[in-house]
Amino acid sequence: MSKDVFSASITPITRYLIIEENLDKCNGIHVADNKSRFDFLCEGSEFCSQQQICMEVTQDLLELGQRGLVILVGHSIDGDIEALRGIGLDLQDMFDKVLDIALLHQGRHHLSQKRSLSKILDESDIVYQNLHNAGNDAHYTLCGGISLLRKWGFEDLGGSLELL
Known about the structure:
Layout: E1 16-19, E2 45-48, H1 50-67, E3 71-74, H2 78-86, E4 97-100, H3 101-108, H4 117-123, H5 134-156
């Protein structure tokens, strides 16, 4: 059974932006090709050029920053940040905090290697499907991060978000 990790105080904003230049690319060799299987409601998928996506994401983050704390949540996020930088989206200084749930989980359990997103979700009793779809991965990563923080409490992580 899936846990409901979102509360009234946490309302994710969902936009699913698809890079037009990547429409011909697919997975399927080492992981399932689920790029057309986005499972969550939003106003619809938006197909944009790399340049347009960079402008849209930058604008969205600036607007969110005006409203309060902005935390980037990811799973093994360094590669994602580099990939975004490669298309012209430099996220440096766009977030107040970065929370990598793979590193959080690894450190908390004193593991020598990071665990996959699916293993973290399994341990958190979060039911998931269609991983390896960017939008689904983002949704489930946020669910996993919230679940880990609720499970261990902020006190166990140093008493505040400052250490994230």
